[in-house]
Design brief:
Blueprint (H helix, E strand, L loop, with lengths): L2 E10 L2 E11 L4 E5 L6 H9 L6 E6 L2 E2 L10 E4 L11 H11 L4 H14 L15 H14 L4 E5 L7 H18 L2 E6 L2 H7 L2 E6 L2 E6 L1 H6 L4 H7 L3 E3 L2 E3 L4 E4 L7 E11 L2 E8 L6 E6 H7 L6 E6 L5 E3 L14
Parallel strand pairs: 3-8, 3-9, 6-7, 7-8
Antiparallel strand pairs: 1-2, 1-4, 4-5, 9-10, 11-12, 12-18, 13-17, 14-15, 14-17, 15-16
Helix pairs in contact: 2-3, 2-4, 3-4
The structure holds adenosine-5'-triphosphate.
């Protein structure tokens, strides 16, 4: 294992930021720490980095007991959301910085910087100042700088958080490809489930200072450990006494066994999808169903129509903590 976190606890005054965190992250893996704001992701990342100390528990990096090692001795590279570059140094010098303070030979530094700038597709920008780069280019420079010292682990705290949606998307594809090339063990913090699902080999869901679940994107999506994980990894809607994904509901225009009858209150076309809101008797919140436009057209769905809803075969469903359907209400049409 590259990173082993055992029994880590952290409080700020009375506030419990992390509670009994245990994690083993294999060498070469790209792991996302995913969770809502304030859940403890950054605190955990900072404890792994050595920027913060745990109240109890241990951190082992590449087999080395690191709990009390200062940050400089952990051989970790970081990138934060707002990357602090040296404004007066060129892109190349920024990337070279970690190597220069380690007094590496000039020729070695030059070769390494060229290699890294090529890796992050900034070859043409070596002589620019950071202020002459776009936000996305600056974050790529930050990654090159973090990689320059050949860290055993790379820690990224919302590295693309400050960028607009399109650039974020490009950079996340790029990060995945970069990781496939360099295979450095990487942990990145995000509160964006799509980002985690698209990029990570494994996702650690962190909420209220605890790990809710660890698993591959597929595992988490298909077999969420609880209602929280299910809700955090994608949209969820209530149908009777279960909660499930809106695209996991089958819609019929005639009564079917076990189906709940409802009335379409709204039909919204978003790109290639149609989102259908269905009011079901006795259920407070409408059921949301998502389907393709073609499917909705084939069924001839329109607002005001009566439909019958049933979980699709093989749908992932968890029991509702508060059943959406009041007891004693008629369920089937
Ligand atoms: N130095 C500190 N002093 C007091 N409380 C802190 C400190 N650092 C963090 N916290 C608290 O610990 C909790 C966890 O914070 P943390 O930054 O780890 O969350 P997060 O999951 O990374 O959230 P975000 O996505 O918003 O960055 C928060 O409630 C935060 O207010």
């Amino acid at each position: 294992m590259s990173i082993d976190v055992s029994g880590v606890n952290k409080r700020y005054g009375d506030f419990v930021a992390l509670q009994d965190i245990n994690l083993s992250l294999p060498t070469g893996q790209l792991t996302a720490l995913l969770g809502p704001s304030g859940g403890g992701k950054t605190t955990l990342l900072r404890i792994i980095a050595g920027l913060e100390t745990a109240d109890s528990g241990s951190v082992v990096i590449e087999g080395v007991e690191a709990t009390r090692l200062p940050v400089q001795k952990r051989n970790v590279g970081f990138v934060f959301q707002h990357y602090a570059a040296f404004k007066h140094l060129s892109v190349a010098r920024n990337v070279a910085f970690g190597l220069e303070i380690r007094k590496k030979p000039k020729a070695e530094i030059k070769a390494k910087v060229e290699e890294l700038l090529h890796l992050v597709h900034l070859d043409a920008f070596a002589d620019r100042l950071p202020s002459q780069l776009s936000g996305g280019q600056r974050q790529r420079m930050a990654l090159a700088r973090a990689l320059a010292i050949e860290p055993s682990v790379l820690l990224l705290d919302e590295p693309f958080g400050a960028l607009d949606a399109k650039v974020r998307k490009e950079l996340r594809d790029w990060l995945r490809r970069l990781h496939d090339e360099v295979h450095v063990t990487t942990v990145f913090v995000t509160h964006d489930q799509e980002e985690a699902l698209e990029v990570a080999d494994e996702i650690v869901v962190v909420n209220e200072g605890r790990v809710e679940q660890v698993g591959s994107p597929d595992q988490l999506y298909d077999e969420p450990a609880n209602d929280f994980v299910m809700g955090f990894l994608g949209e969820v809607t209530g149908l009777g006494d279960v909660r499930l994904r809106p695209h996991d509901i089958e819609v019929a225009t005639h009564p079917t066994p076990g189906a709940l009858q409802g009335t379409i209150t709204r039909l919204l076309r978003v790109g290639f999808e149609v989102r259908v809101a269905v009011a079901v008797a006795g259920q407070d919140a409408p059921v949301t169903v998502v389907m393709t436009r073609t499917h909705a057209r084939a069924l001839g769905l329109e607002a005001g129509a009566t439909v019958w809803l049933v979980p699709a075969e093989g749908a992932t469903a968890v029991a509702s903590p508060t059943p959406a359907l009041a007891e004693g209400e008629p369920v089937a049409g």
